[in-house]
Amino acid sequence: MPYTTTISIFVSLCLLVTAYFWGVKRAIATKRSQTALSTQVKFHSLPGFHGAYVAIWCAIPSLVLFVAWQTLRPNFLPQWLAQDMAGLVLLISAGILGLFFAQKRIASRFKARHKVETAFSLVMLLSSLVAVFTTFGVVVSLVFETMRFFSKVSVSEFLFGLHWSPQIALRADQVASSGSFGAVSIFAGTLLITAIAMLIAVPIGLFSAIYMSEYATPKFRTWAKPLLEILAGIPTVVYGFFAALTIAPFMRNWGFELGLEISSESAMAAGLVMGVMIIPFVSSLSDDVINAVPQTLRDGSAALGATKSETIRLVLLPAALPGIVSSVLLATSRAIGETMIVVMAAGLAANLTANPFQAVTTVTVQILTLLVGDQEFDSPKTLAAFALGFVLFLLTLGLNILALKIVNKYREKYD
Amino acid sequence: MKKSIKLFTIAAITLPLLSSIAIARDQIQIVGSSTVFPFSSIVAEKFGKSTDFKTPVVESTGTGGGMKLFCAGIGERFPDIANASRRIKPKEIENCAANGIDPVEIKVGFDGIVLANASNAAVFSLTKRQIYMALAAKVPTATGELVDNPYVKWSDIDPSLPALKIEVLGPPPTSGTRDAFVEIAMEGGAKTFESLVAIRKTNKNKFKAIAHSIREDGAYIEAGENDNLIVQKLKTNHNALGIFGFSFLDQNRAQIKGAIIDGAVPNFENIADGSYGISRSLYYYVKKQHVDTIAGLREFTEEFLSEKAMGEDGYLLDKGLIPLAEEALAKSVAAANNLTPVNLSAE
Amino acid sequence: MIDKMSRHTKKRYQAERRFKIYGLLAIMFALGFLGLMLSTIALRAIPAFTQTYIQLTVEFSAKILDVDNKRDVKQIARADFQKIIREALYAEFPAANKRQDKKHLKKLVSSEAGYHLSRDLLAAETTDLNFIGTSAAIWVKSSDDVDSFIKDFISREVDEINRRLNDQQIGWIDSLIADGKLETRFNWDFFKFADSRSPEDAGIRGAVMGSLFTLAITLMLSFPLGVFAAIYLEEYAKPGRITDFIGVNINNLAAIPSIVFGLLGLALFLNIFGMSRSSPLVGGLVLSLMTLPTVIITTRAALKSVPPSIREAALGIGASKMQTILHHVLPLAMPGALTGAIIGMARALGETAPLLMIGMVAFIADIPTNINDPATVLPVQIYIWADSPERAFESKMSAAILVLLFFLIVMNGLAVLLRRKYERRW
Q: Which residues of chain B make contact with A49, given a CB cutoff of 8 A?
């Protein structure tokens, strides 16, 4: 029954809308009948709140029941209860029960608004917890395999070893040989490529944002902003091909002319293209926050005789700082997480170097290749992917905490 | 207020989506090697078009990942077939057995691994020994002492080779193609050195560790698993050689050419009869327990080995699969028909 | 004194001009890069939009189609239509009578031509079977090699041994062209079909539908959830340890490599909830977990920049907290939230790695019709084609990228409209 999902969505939608209007109608009807009796009756809440109240009572029981049913179904429920139809019936009946319960409570004194507001704030809270649960899930899915990895490779070798070469598989028939899993060089590679990318993206993105929000005509801005955003959406495979087949040979030839030794896979080519890709992360978000700085600040600064650029540098940027920092952080995150461009343009060789014209590799690239390679699944080769992910997780966590501290320190609120 | 209701409604209807309804699967699910993927998917396509069954879904997960999924259990949630560019490992059979699965091994053909460069660049004619000398991390000197690979140019290895810098684009250590290349070409080359053979006799693992290590000083460039990208890079860089599957050479013959290895040109006939030495076997493993419950599984295995696919004019051969010899094919067909579970100790 | 001041002013104005020029240069650089990428892609994509066809006079002989003479549609549907096309080719070039010649000759037409011929003829259940025994001139698709030759990807100058088509085959093609029996047409099939291993038959429809289903789920989940979470963190939560903890968590999620979300999806949705592999539903769920941080971070930044006076004014005239947020604060923060959604969705639209773990990196020849059907998405399709040995897939890949960009532009256009509606400055 492939359409059951569609049906259940449709039914729950209908039910919710019905519940809302039922509530509104009941509230109005109650009000009318009561006003007919005496003119002194005042309803505590608007009819809309009553409607929302009924709708919430309709949604929550059916949702809870349905999720529980779905979770239990594969393993614990008897056959007759596990059928698709059973789920649908449960969904509907719970909704209708809730609806009847709620609509009975509609009365002039009934504080529907308070209930709805509480429910609303609860929904907000739950939504923000989704992110926390996701983090929890990520940690859980990484931590066990990481521990298995560290039972085979020592922590200090992994964290401080300089040599990354998972080329020799540890197999049952190969006791004596071992790969080396020193992760320093790949973390250094990540740092190098990210730094190059940010050197491109931050100035260009920030200047674009400033130009768009302060200098450009509204028409130019309406066009330029979404155009720039396209850059973020071009599939990374395309950037990868571009970096590997256009930028890298170009740089190689150019280096040859100057007498420089530039390998065909280089951190520069990958970082450059990646920088372009994340420009919109900086430009669009910064544009939004700069634009949102109150006009009074601009007017005030202009009245004191500052030029526009002085206003921007001395007034607008400090005011928009928290937003700009979060946009830069987001762009950095994106750069750290990028794989395809690096695989194609910077290669996979783990060199420990600060020379941007050499081949390097990044953590995410290693994770991807380790996970999808034609390998045994529980050799340290594959497990190393989880360990890398986990260490990266901790590292970025540290960075984020640092950033939060900085933002809190310099944050200024204007109005 | 209305807006908030709208928001609520949207949120409330989307949440049930979270717990969607798992449905009965009515098509075959195939996972596994990216090397077998193009062959497996064309069989799937033809199978879907020529029968009443739905077209099987073929995933490209890598052999190891595929085996893990395949061996995870019996039932609709688990795949029916695992493609592999190497033989199943004893440990994987153990995992399968622990979940009550008998994998049926069906060998389908070979994939040649070629060393190629741009078609207007120098012609390479190499022996495995020379490949080993060019790419190994450590090579024995004349006295049998192991030193870090000193060769910079091909002509340093043998004056008859072009005086070009050694620059080889190849797959990373995680790749199955790399494993196969190392096991056949590098190990084959290593066996030609007496000092290494001596090590092999006393300590097999040490020998393997030496023979399987590829140099990391920049002469061998790990270029990812995208073979098309390597082909493109070769076109712009005439000094470089690339290592990849034969079908990419076959499809791009106008731009690149294969190096001659041990006197044999990498072409269809030479790989099929074994005179071109670097090739590996391709397999797929069928879950015996699913044959009766998943519709079309038996028919699919028949299609894979049919005359239409594997015959002299078969569509698989058109796509670059190198077929089995008659005897081996008969064995595969028998395995498919009788569903004999894999037995690694046989052969 | 005045002189000094005017010099100083001049300097300041110069700095002003320089600053403005930097801004313009930055935008021009980014837009120039975009233009360069787009034009490269578009140029490469052009060949994918045409397809070469060959005219053949086929004879629907009953001997091949209706072996036992029962006139049964189902039986005939299984007949070897490809053979009919082959016979027509042999009849067109009677000189090619050796086995080897015939082998080369039949490679001129698409190996899927017979399948499409039978589908066209037997589309309805009540098909008129009168065509059996007659003959007709029909156009069939050429093979990808012929198509590449017509599009000048295979050059005559190359040595015969290194060419995908030999001299004899090129001779046949030349004579077909001379007889007017070969033409190129717009390749509608590219928009009608799902993936195929034959480049001439491969289309984008399956991936487009998969992407639509996946993105719909991603948008429906990540946008409201993200906005709600941002509202909670900015408007409800008291600033302090816990709020900071959640905030850091969210920022950190944005930096997690996308493939890890795939691992999480595999464990959570497939193994615990038992959802089906390769389905857009699971894909959408995984991608929404991935885009959620982007939406939250941008919406928070937008909410932060709404001046407190707006809230105070609303509260001052008696609005409740919820009313203040929904009627006044949120609409003002909407442009920022939309930017976040667009950037997040753009990323989700282009993502492959997390989908690998949940089985969406796959060859799927059927077009998905609902969120539970096995499906693939556009970037995966691009990736698969980029990884295929056949040359003809290269232009298909670029064409698929164009289609993806088209969706992106539509999405951005929508955001522009919405932004225009909400944006204002104080």
A: 1
